[in-house]
From TrEMBL:
Residues 17-146, 161-294 form the EamA domain. It comes from Jiella endophytica. The chain crosses the membrane at residues 46-63, 75-95, 101-122, 127-144, 164-181, 188-209, 221-242, 254-273, 279-295. SUPFAM superfamilies: Multidrug resistance efflux transporter EmrE (SSF103481). InterPro entries: AA-Vitamin_Transporters, EamA_dom, EmrE-like. This is DMT family transporter.
Length: 302
């Protein structure tokens, strides 16, 4: 059963998770705008440095109170932050250098499938047949996107480097979402701060590797603007709301709303970045929307 939170204002989980999807779609646009204007590992470091700095004064009192609960789970929580926050975003921003923002957002739709499979095999989570159909439709949409409308190219493993990197990032965040199931019962600000500090620590390592490889690019005005967006909205606001959404309706159902990311992302990519929306993108989006509708209806019947 999903955990319910009794304190705080009553907010519909659909509103919470749809907002998350919109902000994460913006993250793909920011990543694309940042490409060539700030190097991806430096962007990841900047993101988590300032996110941690902003969170610290608000979250520190809660962390002190929750420390007896956090301390024995500190390694576990640190791994969550390194995988779900820093590593996912580092690969995400690297992928944006090689593929389109539309592709990135549609490919994120594979996350629910990763969560579904992992929850089934690890926790024997019950599923309805409509969920299976919904996940299958989502997978078709992702396949159409990664293959640019030619699914036969997948058989030859003929993938754009950015699309391949994005699918790796999906595995990282899907694993993080499943692991949230066993997170300790602490204040949400405590959780975000601990994960952010862990993300900052590993981001320093990633940025150092990038520097020694001679790949570091300092931000210009456009790169700095993209970094500011990633600090405030995807890092703090969206991650906090996502944890809240998982608490409200559980990881399987919450992760389905990531399927709204490509819808918002496609619109933003066309309007802001000027990318071209192809017919296979439209077909993929139709599969994604159909998938989330069927899977959500199936989840209600369990």
């Amino acid at each position: 059963m999903p955990q319910q939170q009794t304190s705080g204002p009553r907010v519909h989980p659909y509103a919470v998770l749809t907002t998350v999807a919109l902000l994460w779609a913006g993250n793909a646009i920011a990543g694309k705008l940042a490409a060539g204007h700030i190097s991806p590992m430096l962007l990841t470091l900047v993101r988590w440095f300032f996110a941690t700095l902003v969170l610290l004064p608000f979250a520190a009192p809660h962390l002190r109170r929750d420390w007896p609960v956090v301390r024995p789970r500190l390694v576990y929580l640190s791994i969550l932050g390194m995988v779900g926050f820093a590593s996912f975003n580092a690969i995400f921003y690297l992928a944006a250098n090689y593929t389109t923002a539309i592709n990135i957002t549609i490919e994120q739709s594979a996350m629910p499938l990763v969560v579904f499979v992992a929850n089934f095999f690890l926790f024997r989570t019950r599923v309805a047949w409509l969920q299976i159909v919904g996940f299958a439709l989502t997978l078709v949409g992702v396949a159409l996107t990664t293959s640019r409308g030619d699914i036969t190219s997948l058989l030859a493993l003929d993938l754009n480097r950015g699309d391949a990197l994005m699918m790796l990032a999906v595995l990282f965040y899907g694993g993080y979402t499943v692991a949230l199931r066993t997170k300790p019962q602490v204040h949400w600000l405590t959780m975000i701060l601990v994960l952010s500090v862990a993300s900052l620590a590993i981001s320093v390592v990633y940025a150092a590797i990038e520097f020694f490889l001679g790949q570091t690019r300092l931000p210009d005005l456009q790169g700095a603007g993209a970094a500011v967006y990633t600090v405030i909205f995807p890092s703090i606001v969206a991650q906090s709301l996502y944890i809240r959404g998982v608490e409200m309706i559980g990881p399987n159902r919450a992760n389905l709303f990531i399927n709204f990311v490509p819808v918002f992302g496609a619109l933003l990519a066309v309007l802001i970045v000027g990318e071209e929306l192809h017919l296979y993108h439209v077909a993929a989006l139709a599969c994604v929307l159909g998938g989330i509708t069927l899977a959500e209806r199936g989840a209600r019947r369990i």
